[in-house]
Design brief:
single chain, 212 residues, mainly alpha, three-stranded parallel sheet, two-stranded antiparallel sheet, 11 helices, 7 strands, 45% helix, elongated
């Protein structure tokens, strides 16, 4: 899946989230305070400041809104912030069909994903609700406590099914996915929809051919 129109790093969209908190929750705050929160949230963005340790949305928002002296529940602030980004989740057209075929062939399917920085697991799960029924196990960076290329998530999948981590097949579309597989010493299949090369697949339909 993808969030339509969103770049790898989302910092330019943070202002929309803060503006939504101010507007919807009717909480007046100075532009200076918003700018401070913006800079603090950027520092939690792993695309800008590399980190593998994951922090919960509650921890991040408690930190970045502390100087607002806000008397609104932090969960309300988080939900309002993310609604302000107006994210549109799009499941690629072949995804569900391929997942169905993999299930029919008897594959165990797990999902390993890094959540967008400061996004709660429940929001992301809501955006991929049509896919969750096909997964035998779902691991996010919040669940694992670490972000890729740390292979903690793959270790959890391996342990869940009592299956050697080296025999997992990890399908990913980023360099950090490839490095995660290297760290786990397992097979990696690179999915590149726009810049396909001889060593990658262009969509999930090609995955079915590779696995035959």
């Amino acid at each position: 899946m993808q969030y339509v129109g969103m770049p790898h790093s989302w910092e330019d969209f943070y202002y929309k989230g803060f503006e939504e908190i101010i507007r919807k929750l009717r909480y007046p705050i100075s532009q200076e305070a918003v700018e401070k929160s913006f800079q603090m949230l950027k520092e939690f963005n792993p695309r800008i400041y590399y980190r593998e340790v994951e922090y919960s949305a509650e921890y991040i928002f408690t930190r970045i809104l502390e100087h607002w002296h806000i008397d609104i529940p932090i969960q309300s602030c988080i939900e309002t912030f993310w609604s302000g980004l107006r994210l549109k989740a799009e499941i690629y057209p072949e995804t569900i069909n391929v997942l169905q075929k993999l299930k029919e062939k008897g594959y165990l399917i797990a999902a390993l994903t890094d959540l967008p920085s400061a996004m709660p697991d429940e929001i992301f799960r809501r955006d991929i609700s049509d896919l969750l029924g096909y997964f035998d196990y779902y691991v996010s960076s919040t669940v694992a406590g670490y972000r890729k290329p740390n292979c903690k998530g793959l270790q959890m999948i391996s342990e869940r099914f009592s299956f050697p981590i080296t025999e997992l097949i990890f399908i990913g579309d980023e360099e950090k996915d490839r490095r995660t597989a290297i760290n786990a010493h397992c097979k990696f299949i690179w999915l590149q929809r726009t810049e396909k090369n001889e060593e990658s697949i262009g969509d999930l339909n090609e995955l079915l051919q590779v696995l035959e």
